[in-house]
């Protein structure tokens, strides 16, 4: 309870976007420490060349559901497919507030993958294509994007 109150206090002061950016940066830092043995060692000499392959990626989906019964046929299959490809659901449904832009979509999903390649492989896998057929047959519409995490491209 004390930690939850502390998090809510930080969210009140920073806002949701800044809070989640801070949490992501801390998680990325911790993951980097774990990959490097947590001793300041930079890992093997090829670590710099392989950095792009170690960066997590996020599958972000915005959905509008037209037929919940048919859409559920899709959502019942997805968790096992995601797990097979190293995917971890961070956000699925829940409260939201559209801050800007069209109000077309009413369900939001964020899935973390170990790499961009893993996320793309999941989306293009025969199992996912078969599951998505239920959704694509008129059960709903979805916009999907998979984006690599980490620092933004310098301006």
3D structure, described in words:
- By secondary structure, the chain is of the alpha+beta class.
- It has helices spanning 2-14, 16-35, 47-54, 68-84, 116-124, 126-139; strands at 57-65, 88-92, 107-113, 140-148.
- The chain has a four-stranded antiparallel sheet.
- Helix 1 (2-14) crosses helix 2 and helix 4 runs antiparallel to helix 6 (126-139).
- The protein is globular, with a radius of gyration of 18 Å.
- 13% of the residues are buried.
Q: What characteristics describe this protein?
A:
alpha+beta, 52% helix, 6 helices, 155 residues, four-stranded antiparallel sheet
Briefly summarize what is shown:
This protein is of the alpha+beta class and 155 residues long. The chain has helices at 2-14, 16-35, 47-54, 68-84, 116-124, 126-139; strands at residues 57-65, 88-92, 107-113, 140-148.
Mean pLDDT: 80
Please state the CA-atom Rg, rounded to the nearest Å.
18 Å
Helix-strand sequence: HHHEHEEHHE
Q: How would you sum up the major sheet?
A: 4 strands, antiparallel
The percent of residues in helical segments reads: 40-55%
Q: End-to-end distance, in Å? A: 41 Å
Topology:
Blueprint: H1 2-14, H2 16-35, H3 47-54, E1 57-65, H4 68-84, E2 88-92, E3 107-113, H5 116-124, H6 126-139, E4 140-148
Antiparallel strand pairs: 1-3, 1-4, 2-3
Helix pairs in contact: 1-2, 4-6
